[in-house]
């Protein structure tokens, strides 16, 4: 398996522009997570999908952020309009669901998207 | 606010030494504990998880958990330069079956 695939690897944009990050989870994994990593705040969960349904979006910083998962093999995270403080590495991770509905203990992370908003 | 604190590091050890990384957590109801390794510019990867008090060994790695003290540690024996990375402690609270709270990480450098 190719693992979790994210695109683009790097994105440089200007403040106010729309940014769309893409993720293809590992086939058969029904849990998908979007994380953001910065030096100041570390790795933070933005949103969690299970079976394509958003379960927890409490980590989404504000209305400028939105995420979708139209099918089991694709998810997007959109920022509109982008701001310099959104600059970070955005990771997508997937995991199979284990017994009792709990996600499997191992999260498989994609390579991340390094976002720079100027 | 559920917090995970990693106060050890940056840590520098010579090759062959034991590296000890520490983590404390605030949520007493936490059930599952994880150590992820992240090389510079790469994504995190799981290296250990532990649920019960005591030690869990996997090769050169040992995770130690003390729920009474809300403390989890990672020991790396016979440290190798390839172990140089940031180690992230992650905790899953008892109220969630999916949400991990990560510490900010501890940078380990193993000098040849």
| Average of pLDDT of chain A | 91
| H/E series of chain A | EEEEEEEEEEE
**Backbone CA Rg of chain B:** 13 Å
Q: Can you give the mean pLDDT of chain B?
A: 92
Distance between the termini of chain B: 40 Å
Order of helices and strands of chain B: EEEEEEEEEEE
Number of helices of chain B: 0
What overall form of chain A do the CA principal axes indicate?
A: globular
Strands of chain B, total number: 11
Structural class, judged by helices and strands of chain B?
mainly beta
User: Roughly how many Å is the radius of gyration of chain A?
Assistant: 14 Å
| Content of β-strand of chain A | over 45%
Structural class of chain A comes to mainly beta
Largest sheet of chain A: 7 strands, mixed
The most extensive interface between chains reads: A-B, 23 and 17 residues
User: Any idea what the shape of chain B is?
Assistant: globular
Strand content of chain B: over 45%
Explain what this protein looks like in three dimensions.
The complex is a heterodimer of chains A (118) and B (112). Chain A has 118 residues and is mostly beta strands. Helices cover 0% and strands 53% of the residues of chain A. In chain A, strands 2, 4, 5, 6, 9, 10 and 11 form a seven-stranded mixed β-sheet that branches. The model of chain A has no long low-confidence stretch (mean pLDDT 91). Chain B is mainly beta. Chain B is 0% helix and 54% strand. In chain B, strands 2, 4, 5, 9, 10 and 11 form a six-stranded mixed β-sheet that branches. Chain B has a five-stranded antiparallel β-sheet with strand order 1-3-8-7-6, with no helix packed on it. The model of chain B has no long low-confidence stretch (mean pLDDT 92). Chains A and B meet through strand 5 of A and strand 5 of B.
């Amino acid at each position: 398996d190719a693992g979790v695939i994210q695109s683009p690897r790097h994105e440089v944009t200007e403040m106010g522009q729309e940014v769309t990050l893409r993720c293809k989870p590992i086939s058969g994994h029904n849990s998908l997570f979007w994380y953001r990593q910065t030096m100041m705040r570390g790795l933070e969960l933005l949103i969690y999908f299970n079976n394509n349904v958003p379960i927890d979006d409490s980590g989404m910083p504000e209305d400028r952020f939105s995420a979708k998962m139209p099918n089991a093999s694709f998810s997007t995270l959109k920022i509109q309009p982008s701001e310099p403080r959104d600059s970070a590495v955005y990771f997508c991770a997937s995991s199979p669901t284990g017994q009792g509905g709990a996600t499997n203990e191992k999260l498989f992370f994609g390579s991340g998207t390094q976002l720079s908003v100027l | 606010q559920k917090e995970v604190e990693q106060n050890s590091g940056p840590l520098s050890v010579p090759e062959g030494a034991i590296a000890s990384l520490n983590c404390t957590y605030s949520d007493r109801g936490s059930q599952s504990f994880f150590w992820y390794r992240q090389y510079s510019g790469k994504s995190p990867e799981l290296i250990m998880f532990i649920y019960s008090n005591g030690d869990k060994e996997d090769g050169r790695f040992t995770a130690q958990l003390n729920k009474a003290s809300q403390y989890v540690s990672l020991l790396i024996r016979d440290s190798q330069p390839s172990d140089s990375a940031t180690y992230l402690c992650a905790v899953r609270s008892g109220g969630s079956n999916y949400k991990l709270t990560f510490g900010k990480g501890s940078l380990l450098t193993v000098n040849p």
